[in-house]
Amino acid sequence: MAEGKQKKGLEGTGLDLPKNRYGNLKSASTDQNLKHILTDIKTSKTPAVINYGASWCGVCSQILPSFCKLSNNFPKLSFIYADIDECPETTLHIRYTPTFHFYRDGERVDEMFGAGEERLHDRLWLHS
To answer: What residues are paired with 78 via a beta bridge?
Structure first.
């Protein structure tokens, strides 16, 4: 693909991901985009979860379809996928992929490292 035409975010993973029914799944494909999303989470105080992953991470590729599927089970939660290579400035603090950050009332209240659909489901239920 030509430079600048390469797909990013969820589309750039190359995975066959479940469709999102509620419009509560977003993808941050640039630092500016992720900064805007984080500001929106803080001001709207909407409960949210951010999945920090990477296209080269095998574990990330395994959990991402479940993350997308779970977005349909929790319509009041905002789901965001951020690739650390596409948002390098705003993801400097991420040391492990995948990392999940959970937000409530505009503040980060929890963090989960690694994958596991059941673990993720339980955390989403707790924070929804």
So the answer is: 48
Q: How far apart are CA 6 and CA 17, in angstroms?
A: 18
At residue 5, the pLDDT reads: 62
Would you name the residues annotated as active-site residues?
57, 60
Q: What is the pLDDT of residues 62-88, one digit of tens each?
A: 999 999 999 999 999 999 999 999 999
Count of C-beta atoms within a 10 Å radius of residue 69? 15
CA angle 117, 118, 121 (to 5 degrees): 85
Residues of the chain with pLDDT under 50: 1-2
Range of the domain at 104: 22-127
Query: In the chain, how many domains are there?
Result: 1
> Hey, which residues does 51 pair with through a beta bridge?
81, 100
Q: Is residue 15 assigned to a domain?
A: no
Crossing angle for the helix pair 117-127 and 58-71, nearest 10 degrees? 40
